[in-house]
Structures
1.
Amino acid sequence: MSRFRSPVAKVLIVASLALFVVLWGAMIWTAFEHDAVPLTTLDPQGPFSTMIDDLVAPVFIIGGMVFVGVLGAVMYFVLRYREKGDDDLELPKQTHGHTAAEVAWTIAPGIVLAVVAFLTVGVILDLSAEEEGALRVEVYGAQWWWGYNYDITGDRSFDSDGDISTANELVIPVGRPVELRITSMDVIHSFWIPALNGKADAVPGMHRDWKIQADAPGVYRGQCTEFCGLSHANMRMLVRAIPADEFDEWVARQQQPAADPPADNELAVAGQEQFVNLCASCHLVDGLNNEQIAQLHEDDEFPLVAGVAPDLTHFRSRGTFAGGIYNLTYPNPAGDDSPFGATCTLEDLENCGDPTDIGLAGNPDNPLYRPFIEDWLRNPPAMKPMAAEEGRGMPNLNLTQEQIDQLVAYLDTLR
Ligand SMILES: [Cu+2]
């Protein structure tokens, strides 16, 4: 009797088959469990991601048919011609040089691949076609956050009068295509909002054209998907899609330079002074330190490798910060899945959702959630691994609690 037929071997074989089926099932189950997996490509929310999804389905079916066919044949032959323990070994008919068979098994995969290639090239062309009436945004990656420059004036430049800049949260109008010009300020990153399109690499010195569009208002999460150093995993971003009229209002607010804090807000007035002394060598607040930043660039003395730090002009109009990994505000009332519908109030914080759950992105209209932003100012590298001594990331500035209170009060005015 062959040793392969011992009871132990049989148990092992059945157990490993069962394990295989369970793991496979778990993988497929998680792929379809969208709530648990915010970064899924299988739940498209816009026309471009839908094109990809419509390609994945037929290719998956073709691949599945080949898989079942090949494995079915293998299983059949394994069972049919297995060694049965008796001596008279029955060999199958040995074939060699069968021209018809060889031609067939060369042409058949060729046809399958040609069909897949045809479908794929079609989608690639559709995805790279220019869109009528698109909004243009320059996207840049920097260790370890994302910046956005909007061409609002439509003159194909991103820094004319009236154009705007923001960071980490990309606000777009619902139903309108958005053309992205993706680049990097330091190393290679990759921009990926799976609900809205596939991945596009951000390469220093180059621009990659890409586009996204959202069918419905909502928050769509993303993640840098090219390993870019220490805080690669903390380099997230989100797209906030809002109705066109709200978008126009948002743009009008972003176009305003930051106003000085009102004189009776003494804490914020003191905070602005701290900001000028401690922060203005890295962060731009439009209307406050434009000349200082321009001068640093002219003298080639910008303190960071990337040559940029997040634009803070309208910092408080964002719901998250530091690469989208911390809520800046409370999110929305638990159970309300519209990111814009309901607004929680200072009096009713209990219904505002859990601000430590970054899965619930902060709503910029909601009250400030102080603990994270205070901790950030107290010691940024403790909140997010960064190599500040190399000019990558924000250094610990050893601020006192009084300075932190003043700075938070000032940041809170930057709407
Ligand atoms: Cu990155």
2.
Amino acid sequence: MNINKTRKTYKDKKSIFNLTGSPIKIFKEWYLEAEKKVSEPNAFALSTSYKNIPSSRMMLLKSFSSTFIFYTNISSKKGKEIENNKAASILFWWKEMQRQVRIDGKLEQLSSTKVKKYFYSRPYESQIGALSSNQSSKLNSYEQLINEFEKNKSLFKNKKVLFPRNWVGFELRPNSIEFWQGGKSRLHQRIEFKKIKKIWKKKILAP
Ligand SMILES: Cc1cc2nc3c(=O)[nH]c(=O)nc-3n(C[C@H](O)[C@H](O)[C@H](O)COP(=O)(O)O)c2cc1C
């Protein structure tokens, strides 16, 4: 299937080269704007790797300050990859704003106190869902999952849901953050910040 007629022309946006402050401050400004314009602005692609073979999947960011926090199952494919290699990359695409943000860094596991606090703040059925799914393991049928969900629902009716022991949180400590703004004639604007000896150094990159 030839899809080369699918071609989006970006409109010029105001310059991003005069953005001031740390990349975390800029991310926060862009995120606040994205909250108003983008559906699920917290959705990002997480890339990890095992023995030089990369893999990516979409995730939801749950908080950020100087690090970027998400939750998952440590027994999953990504969990096993992260256990072997803490280097990761996360990528946001805010289509409605023609903006991409790429953040590379090292992952650190959150303390179980923090993870439990977040787990029990989730809706009851999401807690049951997490407990019922051994993420990325083989299912004999979809019914197997539904049965597990229903079983746990009745087991923990009006009770505190058992904390799933494989449920974990990670924070990405960034060492590189790149902001990309789409422009006319593919003349996009890019600024890359790299952390060198604890100081963020800024560069403009060719699109
Ligand atoms: C928009 C979106 C958000 C998602 N958010 C999460 C998340 O926060 N945590 C998670 O474990 N999986 C999330 N998933 C599911 C993952 O993409 C993936 O299917 C799952 O984590 C298993 O990945 P793995 O086999 O590579 O470990 C999300 C999927 C989508 C489409």
